[in-house]
Fold this protein.
Amino acid sequence: MTQMQTNPIPMTRPSVDEDTIAAVAEVLRSGWLTTGPKCRELEKALSDRAGGRPVRLVNSATAALELALRIAGIGPGDEVITTALSWVATANVILTVGARPVFVDIDPRTRLIDPDLIEAAITPRTKALMPVDLAGLPVDRSAIYTLAQRHGLRVIEDAAQSQGARWNGHEIGSMGDLVAFSFHPNKNMTTGEGGCLVMSTEEETELFERLRLQGVKRNADGTYGCDVLGGKSNMTDIAAAIGLGQLKQLDAFNAHRKTLVRHYFQRLSGTGYGLPVADFENSNWHMFQILIPENFPMVRAELMARLKSAGITTGVHYPAIHLLELFRQQGWTEGQLPHTESVARRILTLPLFSSMTLQEVDRVCDAVVLEGGAS
């Protein structure tokens, strides 16, 4: 077997140190496994990082986005403007609360929702904007919030991929309206599974706490009340213990990602592949994604298969949401979002994770250029 076969390079892999593993074992020994002191500790640490804004944990960023919509009072008959170049959960949560997702095309340079196209999509039914920070590159917050203020809209930031990223010198989450982060294993920091929502007021925070656990409000005498329909999306202390260890390393993780990405740019510049915006000031480089040229000598699936045979795993992030069957059933058709559709056809996510080495970046680049027939 070749070394490439014996040492495969995954697309992503979490880095969990021994101190974090020991902290999880301590929780397991404590006998308190569900939401408890470790969750409160992680919420406090995340709040400190967000400039003191209230932060509450849930078991996924999907849950955080859904509860954000409910806090914002969005429901049947309402519209939420978002992008179709995202994980399908972005649009699914809008459907879940009974509202309608309205997709706006992307800026082909940034691959993010194009603020210049949003205003034309606003109707009397529009209640919120839900921008997405694809691959950790922040959306233009200045433009988004200017539009929101002009039209009296809430902003629910799908910042699932941008933990530790910045905008105009401020960390994402330390400003803005409602901000959702993901702690899935493929993110820059993880809790195994999980997410959180950053809010602005104690009233929103109290409602969020009720919505994440059956709408329950505890009384001092041991009884409880329930005046809103909630679900069950609370995080466990086991997950929070992982998150506490990860948060301590987040800045180092992100700094190493930048080093790896700089090497990707050095190796792939001039090869014919479309490269992302080289933003080393704001992006946390959650993913490194190239665009396959229109005149490429093989289809994307063939390139991915050849890379896999060389021990290199890649991914597609993402198919265009509006062309998925569920959303075609709602009237969306091919051709409505030309930039989104073009990028979704050609985008390819290369390996990038905090324990990756420069030598592994070289292996990936050697294979991509060789297998792609680029020079």
In short: The mean pLDDT is 96. The chain has two domains: 18-243, 250-372. The radius of gyration is 21 Å. The domain at 250-372 is CATH 3.90.1150.10 (Aspartate Aminotransferase, domain 1).
